[in-house]
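Consortium newsletter contribution from the modelling node. Members have asked for a concrete example of what our holo predictions look like. Here is one, prepared for the magnesium ion complex that several groups have been discussing at recent meetings.
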Amino acid sequence: MKITGYKLYQVPPRWLFLKVETDEGIVGWGEPVIEGKAATVKAAVEELMTYLIGKDPLRIEDHWNVMYRGGFYRGGPILMSAIAGIDQALWDIKGKLFNAPVYQLLGGACRDSIKVYSWIGGDRPSDTAQMALDCVERGFQAVKMNGTEELQYIDSYDKVDKVLENVAAIREAVGKNIGIGIDFHGRVHKPMAKVLVRELEEFKPMFIEEPVLPENNEALKEIAALTSTPIATGERMFSRWDFKPLLAGGYVDIIQPDLSHAGGITECKKIISMAEAYDVAAAPHCPLGPIALAACLQVDATAHNAFIQEQSLGIHYNQGSDLLDYLVDPSVFHYENGYVKIPQGPGLGIEVNEEKVREMAKVGHQWQNPVWRHKDGSVAEW
Ligand SMILES: [Mg+2]
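And here is the predicted structure:
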């Protein structure tokens, strides 16, 4: 079997899809993208694919090593997202060839379904209590929200109060058994993170995410010592080597590698297994499209420490095009009582509606995140 060609589709709302073709007619799909840099990742995929044309798609581990080690320079969001999408497509091909879902090829399932959470609020949290209640009424048992707006290194206590009021209102609306994930989004610097994690503890969050930027991960130890709330991070970390100091240092309770950013199925399975050895849970990051989510679910099926899965249905980024729009059979991601079943079809377990993908690639997108500024004119973390 040989790889004969590929196609890349930049589709709304902010995604990039890859189709890898073979001489046996089997095709595989991947989602190589970093939000806001789709065209840059596309160029990286094109460079990597020059090596893969004519190669056997089944030698995934070797191809991964060539893509990672063979270029001398390695790591980071662009290269690791390009590898991720190609890796997903190769696993999809392998599963289709053997007529088995990818999780069977990874050792088989240790669960039949996984809990999912729904996003509430937008970039700037508001109306979150009502949205949380709507989610609970649709069966979700967990929600996640942005915790704050922009926050200076040292900021005022009225902003802290606003965060607390939002979370208090959600907790009161949904009761004590619904999980509330609070994403600091790397917007918060260490001094205010210390204040917030302590104050938020009384609302019993499910976790606090990216309390500080990943380049400041050494601050997590000091922050985690102030609270019993689990600390999550990892969506902006891209390999086993990025996660190594975080796990070895005991700085984290939940890792959140992204299957479309951190080297794909091959690498994230290993990252999550590393975390298991430190008694650290996994909640793969996935505010992305259906191929990325399918890849997540295949790995979740086999990972004992995966406890919840992010998914993008109805997320604030998906206006106009949503998670299910590019699938032949959207029922594969049917959420019931806050859980989704592991897809059982061959490969990634989904069927991409290529006609729709082609049509929407003509529309395309140039999505970029906003640039925020503080009152004094300095750039704020988004
Ligand atoms: Mg996040």
